[in-house]
Recover the amino acids of this structure.
C-alpha cells in the first residue's frame, strides 16, 4: 500500500510590488518614461493633468487626491506624488552615440534581410553560437544536431550553410568565419579589388601556411611577387581584424546606438557628485469621476455599485504599487551609483584607467546592502555621462590582480600597460608572449604567460609572428 507523507516546503514568492520594482529597475531612463506614460494610459484612476487647485477657487469642484480617500472609503491611504525627479515640465535629453551589443547588432542586420521565418530562426541560432570574437568554432553537423535536440527543429546542413553565408556578409566583416584564414578572406571580399588586395587574397588562398610561418622568400618565389608587392599585400593583411567580434571583453563593438545617460557626473574642485536626468513625472491623482463613484458607493448595496467599488480598489492598488516601485527604483539607483562613485573616486576625477580599482558586483552589494542580483539589474543598460566620456556602468567592474608591491590593480590597467608594450616594440622583432611577460614584470605587474595571451586576444593584438614587418 502506498505510503503517504505530509512534508512542509518553504518557498519565497515575490509580491506584486517587488516584481514591479524589479521590472522598473532594469529600464533605462527613456524606457522608464514610456512605461510611466503607458501606466497613465492604462489606469483610468490616475490623472496627470495640471493640478486644478492652482487654477480654481476653493468654491469650484476639484479633483480628489488619493490621500483624501481613507480606510473607511474602501482603500488604504498613501501618497502618490513623486517629487524627487525634478521640476522640468518637459524632458530635456542629451542623447549620445555609444556602443551596441555585438549579438544585437547581428540580429538587427538579420532582421533587415528578406528571409522567411525558418531562415530567421536558423540565423538567430547561428548568431547565438558565435564565440565572443565572432568565430563559429563548431562544425555545421554538430549545430544541426544541437538545433534538433534543443529546439526540436530539423534542418539540413545545406540550409544552415546557406544562412551562415548570409551572416558572413554582415558587419563587421569577417564575422561567422570558421578559422582565421576564412575570417581574413571574408574581410578582403569586402574591399575594392585593387592589385594589392588581389595579391593579398592569393597569399591567403595559396600560401597561407608559408605566410603564417613568415617564409617570405618562398611566398615571393611561388607567387612571382617582388619585395615591394609583398610588402603592400602584407600591409592589406595586417590591417585586417583577426577578432571581428570585438577587441575588448565586454562584448561591445563600434556599432552606434543612441542612449540617454541615466546619471550625469559633476566635478567641482575635486568634489564629485551626480544627478539623474530630469523628466516629467506628474502628480498622480484620482480622476474625479472615479472618486465620485467611490464616494457614492459607500452607502450603496447594489451589485453594480459593489462591482464598481471593487474595480476602483484594484486600480488604486495598482497605482499605489506603481508609485512605490518608482520611489524604490530611484532610491536603489542613487545608492548604487553613489557607492560606485565612492569606490572609484580617484578614477572619476580624471578618467585615468590606472586609477580604476578592481571591483565586482559583490563589492557594491556589501556597501549598499542590496543583493548582488539587484546590483546587476541596476548596472545593466545604464550609462553615466562624465567629463571624459559616456560609459556603461558595467565598464567600471573588473577583476583584479596583484602587482609586484602586493597592491591590487584592475585588469583594465594591465591591458593598458600591455598595449603600451606592444606599441613600443620593434616591429621587425615583435615581442613574444614570454618577452611581454618580462616587459610587464619590469613595469611592476606580476602576470603569467597564459594571461598575456588571453589579454592580447581580448585587445585584438595578433601573435608576434603576425605583427612582424619586413
Amino acid at each position: 500500500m502506498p505510503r503517504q507523507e505530509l512534508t512542509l516546503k518553504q518557498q519565497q514568492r515575490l509580491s506584486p510590488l517587488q516584481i514591479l520594482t524589479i521590472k522598473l529597475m532594469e529600464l533605462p531612463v527613456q524606457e522608464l518614461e514610456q512605461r510611466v506614460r503607458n501606466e497613465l494610459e492604462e489606469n483610468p484612476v490616475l490623472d496627470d493633468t495640471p493640478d486644478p487647485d492652482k487654477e480654481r477657487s476653493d468654491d469650484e469642484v476639484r479633483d480628489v487626491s488619493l490621500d483624501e480617500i481613507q480606510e473607511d472609503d474602501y482603500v488604504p491611504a498613501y501618497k502618490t506624488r513623486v517629487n524627487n525627479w525634478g521640476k522640468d515640465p518637459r524632458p530635456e535629453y542629451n542623447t549620445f552615440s555609444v556602443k551596441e551589443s555585438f549579438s544585437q547588432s547581428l540580429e538587427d542586420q538579420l532582421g533587415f534581410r528578406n528571409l522567411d521565418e525558418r531562415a530567421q530562426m536558423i540565423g538567430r541560432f547561428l548568431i547565438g553560437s558565435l564565440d565572443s570574437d565572432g568565430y563559429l568554432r563548431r562544425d555545421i553537423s554538430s549545430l544541426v544536431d544541437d538545433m534538433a535536440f534543443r529546439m526540436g527543429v530539423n534542418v539540413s546542413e545545406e540550409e544552415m550553410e546557406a544562412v551562415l553565408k548570409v551572416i558572413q556578409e554582415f558587419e563587421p566583416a569577417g564575422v561567422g568565419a570558421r578559422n582565421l584564414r576564412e575570417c581574413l578572406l571574408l574581410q578582403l571580399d569586402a574591399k575594392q579589388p585593387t592589385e594589392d588586395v588581389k595579391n593579398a587574397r592569393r597569399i591567403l588562398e595559396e600560401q597561407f601556411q608559408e605566410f603564417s610561418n613568415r617564409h617570405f622568400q618562398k611566398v615571393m618565389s611561388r607567387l612571382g611577387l617582388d619585395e615591394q608587392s609583398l610588402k603592400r599585400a602584407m600591409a592589406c593583411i595586417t590591417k585586417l581584424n583577426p577578432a571581428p567580434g570585438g577587441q575588448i571583453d565586454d562584448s561591445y563593438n563600434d556599432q552606434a546606438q543612441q542612449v540617454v545617460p541615466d546619471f550625469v557626473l559633476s566635478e567641482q574642485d575635486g568634489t564629485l557628485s551626480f544627478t539623474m536626468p530630469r523628466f516629467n513625472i506628474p502628480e498622480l491623482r484620482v480622476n474625479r469621476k472615479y472618486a465620485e463613484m467611490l464616494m457614492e458607493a459607500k452607502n450603496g448595496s447594489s451589485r453594480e455599485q459593489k462591482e464598481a467599488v471593487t474595480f476602483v480598489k484594484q486600480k488604486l492598488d495598482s497605482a499605489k504599487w506603481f508609485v512605490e516601485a518608482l520611489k524604490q527604483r530611484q532610491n536603489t539607483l542613487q545608492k548604487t551609483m553613489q557607492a560606485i562613485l565612492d569606490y572609484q573616486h580617484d578614477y572619476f576625477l580624471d578618467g585615468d584607467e590606472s586609477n580604476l580599482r578592481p571591483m565586482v558586483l559583490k563589492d557594491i552589494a556589501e556597501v549598499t546592502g542590496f543583493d548582488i542580483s539587484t546590483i546587476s539589474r541596476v548596472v545593466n543598460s545604464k550609462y553615466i555621462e562624465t567629463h571624459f566620456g559616456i560609459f556603461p556602468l558595467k565598464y567600471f567592474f573588473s577583476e583584479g590582480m596583484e602587482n609586484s608591491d602586493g597592491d591590487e590593480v584592475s585588469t583594465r590597467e594591465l591591458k593598458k600597460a600591455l598595449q603600451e608594450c606592444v606599441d613600443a616594440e620593434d616591429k621587425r622583432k615583435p615581442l613574444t608572449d614570454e618577452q611581454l611577460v618580462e616587459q610587464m614584470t619590469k613595469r611592476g605587474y606580476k602576470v603569467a604567460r597564459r594571461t598575456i595571451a588571453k589579454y592580447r586576444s581580448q585587445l585584438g593584438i595578433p601573435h608576434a609572428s603576425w605583427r612582424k614587418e619586413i
In short: The longest helix spans residues 303-343. The chain is about 50% helix and 10% strand. The beta strands are 46-47, 96-101, 252-259, 263-268, 271-275, 285-286, 383-386, 389-392, 400-402, 408-410. The radius of gyration is 30 Å.
